[in-house]
């Protein structure tokens, strides 16, 4: 076989659970909407291919399957007629928000015999990071505590944050793979405003390191210019771009900045600036803040992009960071920079695929997902 005929691994059979998870991995908490957006009027969402409705009642958030068992009308079209319940828009079947049991049927009188005999599925709900999170169960299992799934540093410290939740086309796995992808940032994002004054390397030598439930991309060497035989030299450097000094910080902030690292961030001793964990959580560590992405499966062809920027400051410094987020980061990073990723995620069409050396980031993430999910299923059985 000639060298260029080598087909390599083109399908995803090495990772069968991952391959099957087009609509996401069940058995995890997913952020759905901002807590401040959830009111006493039910709202419709889709997660892991399942339609749910969220509603707030006397301060608490509730999630129900978005389908009335009577004739299949979405309960999100209904309204609250009694405290602690949601009534379907069509005939007024009225369900308890806490357990989904049919409590009353308005159009069948107080002695309706069907009450208590019908139930709508409900889902565990928590509120963290200013968002409503819903647990999508595998079967009838009890959910694990949500704090076990959040990035550890967000559970243990005070912080200020800004973020965006955007519906996006494309499978959630393409979005997650793009987030953790080693190869693209230096090339795809070289034209972004966010990187306007920051040079990026041409290519890196990278290894993947596992720590607890995360895998980290560790940059062993960066190359700022490269000679491609027979073609010429290629570099991202421009006279107006700062070239980061080679410091230890280059592994905890792809700004490569020499500025001092935030003490909370420094204390984590992250092995690398980019890390990923189940069920599709990306963490990009900068010297002064951390950016997270949560890829929430909607259905096989779309996902919800949840981008959050966190700063561990308090008091006045927290206000300063939030102003910076609103004035700069939200538009440059969560806006234009991230839109470059969104275009690629929407256009990705794999498998089949033919991977190259930097794609060790992709195969390592898939292997992590496969291992973690296999263990979860074994524990559940
Ligand atoms: Fe819901 Fe009839 S369809 S009450
Ligand atoms: Fe990107």
Could you characterize the architecture of this molecule?
The structure is a single chain. This protein is about 20% helix and about 30% strand. The longest helix has about 30 residues, at about 315-345. By secondary structure, the chain is an alpha+beta fold. It has helices at about 15-20, 150-155, 170-180, 185-190, 265-270, 315-345, 360-380, and strands at about 30-35, 45, 50-55, 60-65, 85, 95, 100-105, 120-125, 125-130, 130-135, 160-170, 205-210, 215-225, 225-230, 230-235, 275, 280-285, 290-300, 300-310. It folds into two domains: about 30-135, Rieske [2Fe-2S] iron-sulphur domain (Rieske Iron-sulfur Protein); about 145-380, Naphthalene 1,2-dioxygenase Alpha Subunit, Chain A, domain 1 (Alpha-Beta Complex), CATH 3.90.380. A hairpin with a 2-residue loop joins strand 9 (about 125-130) and strand 10 (about 130-135). The strands form five sheets. It has a seven-stranded antiparallel sheet with strand order 11-19-18-17-16-13-12. The protein has a four-stranded antiparallel sheet with strand order 2-3-4-8, with no helix packed on it. The protein contains seven helices and 19 strands. Helix 3 packs across helix 6 (about 315-345). FE2/S2 (inorganic) cluster binds next to loops.
């Amino acid at each position: 076989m000639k060298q260029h005929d080598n087909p390599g691994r083109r399908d995803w059979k090495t990772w069968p659970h991952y391959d099957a998870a087009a609509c996401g991995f069940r058995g995890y908490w997913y952020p759905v909407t901002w807590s401040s957006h959830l009111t006493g009027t039910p709202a419709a969402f889709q997660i892991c291919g399942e339609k749910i409705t969220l509603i707030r009642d006397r301060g608490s958030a509730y999630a129900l399957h978005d389908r009335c068992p009577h004739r299949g009308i979405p309960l999100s079209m209904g309204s609250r007629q009694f405290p602690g319940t949601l009534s379907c828009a069509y005939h007024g079947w009225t369900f308890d928000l806490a357990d989904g049991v049919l409590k009353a049927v308005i159009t069948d009188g107080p002695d309706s015999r069907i009450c208590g005999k019908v139930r709508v599925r409900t889902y565990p709900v928590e509120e963290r990071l200013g968002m409503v999170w819903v647990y999508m169960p595998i079967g009838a299992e009890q959910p694990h505590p949500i704090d076990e799934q959040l990035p550890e540093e967000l559970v243990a410290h005070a912080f200020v944050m800004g973020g965006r939740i955007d519906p996006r086309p494309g499978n959630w796995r393409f979005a997650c793979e793009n987030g953790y992808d080693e190869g693209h940032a230096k090339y795809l994002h070289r034209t972004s405003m966010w990187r306007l004054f920051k040079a990026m390397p041409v290519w890196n030598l990278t290894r993947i390191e596992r720590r607890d439930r995360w895998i980290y991309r560790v940059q062993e060497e960066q190359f700022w210019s490269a000679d491609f035989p027979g073609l010429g030299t290629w570099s991202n450097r421009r006279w107006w771009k700062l070239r980061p000094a080679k410091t230890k910080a280059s592994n905890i902030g792809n700004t490569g900045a020499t500025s001092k690292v935030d003490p909370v961030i420094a204390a984590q001793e992250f092995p690398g600036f980019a890390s990923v964990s189940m069920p599709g959580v990306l963490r990009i560590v900068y010297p002064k803040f951390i950016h997270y992405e949560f890829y929430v499966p909607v259905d096989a062809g779309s996902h919800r992009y949840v981008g959050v920027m966190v700063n561990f400051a308090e008091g006045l410094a927290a206000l300063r960071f939030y102003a910076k987020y609103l004035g700069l980061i939200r538009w440059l990073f969560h806006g234009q920079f991230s839109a470059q990723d969104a275009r690629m995620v929407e256009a990705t069409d794999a498998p089949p695929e033919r991977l190259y050396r930097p794609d060790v980031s992709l195969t390592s993430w898939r292997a992590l997902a496969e291992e973690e999910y296999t263990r979860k299923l074994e524990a559940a059985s």
